Amino acid sequence: MINFGYTSNKDRQIVFDENDRSVYQILQSKEPSVDICIQCGTCSSTCTTGQFTQFSLRQIIVNIHRGEMDFINEDIRKCMFCGKCQLVCPRSVNTRNIIQVLITILN
Ligand code: SF4
Ligand code: SF4
């Protein structure tokens, strides 16, 4: 078998009814612009931290929306608050505040 240097993700099922989505609801109330994110990934593709790590703001928003909180608390602390994501976001999501609010909620 040819080794292309990457693998596909394992299949997995997401059961929304069983996930705790309370963090997303708090985030929504404190930073409503999270709701207009279209998960385009522009923030992640320009992210300073993302150039050196697996950090992805798009993925963080998706996971919190699903109620999948594994590693979120650890991941958000990698952000350097440079603000590039906010400059390029086509929906003008207040990305830096999303991270700031998450750090406060998860502290
Ligand atoms: S660039 Fe904006 S709309 Fe696109 S994924 Fe990031 S926060 Fe969401
Ligand atoms: S503010 Fe944080 S998430 Fe946004 S581009 Fe900079 S390091 Fe990445």
List the helices and strands and how they pair.
Elements lengths: L21 H9 L11 H5 L10 H10 L5 H5 L7 H5 L6 H12 L1
Helix pairs in contact: 1-6
Bound molecules: iron/sulfur cluster (2 copies).
Describe this protein with a few key phrases.
single chain; 107 residues; mainly alpha; Fumarate Reductase Iron-sulfur Protein, Chain B, domain 2; 6 helices; globular; binds iron/sulfur cluster
- Total helical segments: 6
Helix content: 40-55%
Helix and strand sequence: HHHHHH
CATH class: Mainly Alpha
CATH homologous superfamily heading: Alpha-helical ferredoxin
Main β-sheet: number of strands, strand sense, barrel status?
none
Overall geometry: globular
Low-confidence stretches: none
Looking at CATH, which topology would you report? Fumarate Reductase Iron-sulfur Protein, Chain B, domain 2
The hetero compounds bound to this protein are: iron/sulfur cluster
Task: Give the termini separation.
Answer: 46 Å
Beta-strand percentage range: under 5%
- Report the count of strand segments: 0
The overall number of domains is: 1
User: Any idea what the radius of gyration is?
Assistant: 15 Å
The assigned CATH architecture is Orthogonal Bundle
Question: Structural class per helix/strand content?
Answer: mainly alpha
Mean pLDDT: 94
